[in-house]
């Protein structure tokens, strides 16, 4: 089991508040707040962080699944788009859309699709999310 740590701080309240989020590893150390979430200000936001987590987790899961099938060469690049939408008086994350571009010599498209679908269903971040998770792939052997 591994436990990872992030800390978020918010000074002030509501739209006027300013936040800062950081991870123990130092990989993330950024401002966040209303402006970074809804107005394109410099910094990060929770949905961007979820997108990064989902893209990286899914890509790693796909890589390990391919290695488990005996493949030793290839490249994978995943883009993840997380949708935040209005939900009554608040908001909800309604979708995490994965788009995988892969090149794996010696692998056929049908087997690739099977492996990618398994990785989508079984990566830990996919299991965490309860929103719709979609997957689009492009493939070259």
Automatic annotation (TrEMBL):
One Pfam family per UniProt: OsmC
SUPFAM superfamilies: OsmC-like
Database matches in PANTHER family: OSMOTICALLY INDUCIBLE FAMILY PROTEIN
NCBIfam families the record matches: osmo_induc_OsmC (TIGR03562)
Name of this protein: OsmC family protein
Species assigned in the record: Novosphingobium mangrovi
């Amino acid at each position: 089991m591994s436990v990872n740590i992030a800390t978020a701080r918010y000074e002030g309240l509501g739209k006027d508040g300013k936040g800062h989020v950081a991870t123990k590893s130092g990989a993330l150390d950024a401002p966040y707040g209303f402006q970074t979430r809804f107005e394109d200000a410099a910094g990060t936001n929770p949905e961007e962080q979820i997108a990064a987590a989902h893209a990286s987790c899914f890509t790693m899961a796909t890589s390990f699944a391919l290695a488990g099938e005996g493949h030793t060469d290839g490249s994978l690049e995943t883009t993840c788009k997380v949708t935040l939408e209005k939900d009554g008086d608040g908001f909800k994350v309604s979708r995490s859309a994965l788009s995988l571009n892969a090149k794996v010599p010696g692998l056929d498209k049908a087997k690739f699709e099977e492996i990618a679908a398994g990785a989508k269903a079984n990566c830990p971040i996919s299991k965490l999310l309860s929103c719709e998770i979609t997957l689009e792939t492009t493939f070259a052997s």
